[in-house]
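Issue 218. Parser rejects a valid record. Input:
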Amino acid sequence: MPDKSKIVIWPIYFDAARSRDEGRMVSREYAINEPNLDMIITASIKSGLKPEIEREKKHPKTWHKPEAAGRILVAKKGSKSATLKKIAGSLKMKYKKQATGKRG
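Output the parser choked on:
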């Protein structure tokens, strides 16, 4: 378990194909299709964050899917939702062709 000074961020948080109950934590407006760990790493760096990468970790809802492995840890400088919105904005800019226009 990471220490309390870090925020855990999983790619599933930005997946447009998932509902909030299935683990998505940003609105569909900011979600993208099939996010992977490398996309999240790139977006977090572009957002001015310094991610710690843990490629071997698996989200509890996708533990059985080898392609869904990995998470990042970033320093807690505000709320988790504010950090996710910052990363989601970078994701949307870089991967806007994949971004959905649906609200959710």
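Fixed in the parser; the record now loads. The chain has one domain: 6-94.
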